[in-house]
Structure to design on (322 residues):
């Protein structure tokens, strides 16, 4: 009996060791294979998006810079999945500081993803509802500044939310080999408002306005303007549909994450207890490049040039992939 109890402990040599999550070997292997597959696909596919937008000059547009920011966050999510794979049985084998940093990175990347979605919604709003002034209002330099501010503010804000956990790593662990952080009630409420409720409200409201604007105003404006044509209108509407799919999938995948991690009083977050919602969030990061491949011809062309190593040839950055 004692041997069976020790087998259930993460560190049998310590009496205060955290107890492993009990699963059958087949289920554990299935989870391991699933997470590993999602991680590899997420990293590879988003790396293709990053290389495509970064390398080909034709893709250096404000909208694609925002997609690049989203791809970077998704790429980092894929790398973070390594820690979730380590936590399959609930045991944390790294130091307490790494546990705190893991949650800090997770929170920061998530906030940056949500912020990028807000920027994408604003970009589409201006493109559809005010197309005549889009090129002057939305420039590459402004897009870069917005992306930079989004990432910096996410890092600073989440650093403040988890500051006690980073300063005193492991202070809330009750057992050896456990990985939890505690978000204070007030900090959790502020995080919920600024990182989820507020941005999601803007995104949902923006989508409603975009569709009304597209149906009622855009066609008339573009038909009357000499510098625009019906092809431009169709292109903008196609981009709107693609972004709408990305945003819808994002909301479906991220809502359970926030519902689990930011509810109640002092939210005690166990890395093993949020495995399902984390996997759902990770899966969204894998889906985004597949959505691009389905709706964006430039991404399919870029992938072909990357896989065939055509991008290594001189002047390949000038290729017309649009």
């Amino acid at each position: 009996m004692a041997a069976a109890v020790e087998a259930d402990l993460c560190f049998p040599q310590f009496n205060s060791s955290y107890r492993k999550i009990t699963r059958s070997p087949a289920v554990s292997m299935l989870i391991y294979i699933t997470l590993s597959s999602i991680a590899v696909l997420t990293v590879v596919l988003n790396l293709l998006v990053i290389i495509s937008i970064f390398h080909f000059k034709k893709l250096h547009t404000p909208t694609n810079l925002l997609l690049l920011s989203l791809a970077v966050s998704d790429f980092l999510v894929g790398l973070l999945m390594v820690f979730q794979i380590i936590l399959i049985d609930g045991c944390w084998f790294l130091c307490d500081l790494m546990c705190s940093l893991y949650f800090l990175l997770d929170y920061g990347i998530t906030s940056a993803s949500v912020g990028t979605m807000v920027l994408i919604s604003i970009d589409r709003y201006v493109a559809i509802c005010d197309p005549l002034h889009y090129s002057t209002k939305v420039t590459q330099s402004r897009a870069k500044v917005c992306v930079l501010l989004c990432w910096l503010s996410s890092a600073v804000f989440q650093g403040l939310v988890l500051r006690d956990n980073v300063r005193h790593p492991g202070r809330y662990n009750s057992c050896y080999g456990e990985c939890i952080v505690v978000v204070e009630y007030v900090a959790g409420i502020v995080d919920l408002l600024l990182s989820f409720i507020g941005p999601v409200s803007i995104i949902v409201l923006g989508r409603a306005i975009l569709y009304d604007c597209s149906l009622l105003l855009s066609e008339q404006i573009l038909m009357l303007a000499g510098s625009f044509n019906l092809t431009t209108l169709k292109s903008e509407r196609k981009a709107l549909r693609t972004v709408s799919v990305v945003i819808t999938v994002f909301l479906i995948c991220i809502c359970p994450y926030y519902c689990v991690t930011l509810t109640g009083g002092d939210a005690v977050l166990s890395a093993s207890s949020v495995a399902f919602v984390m996997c759902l969030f990770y899966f969204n990061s894998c889906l985004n490049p597949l959505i691009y491949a389905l709706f964006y011809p430039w991404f399919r062309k870029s992938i072909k040039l990357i896989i065939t190593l055509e991008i290594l040839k001189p002047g390949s950055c000038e290729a017309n992939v649009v």
User: Anything to note?
Assistant: The radius of gyration is 22 Å.
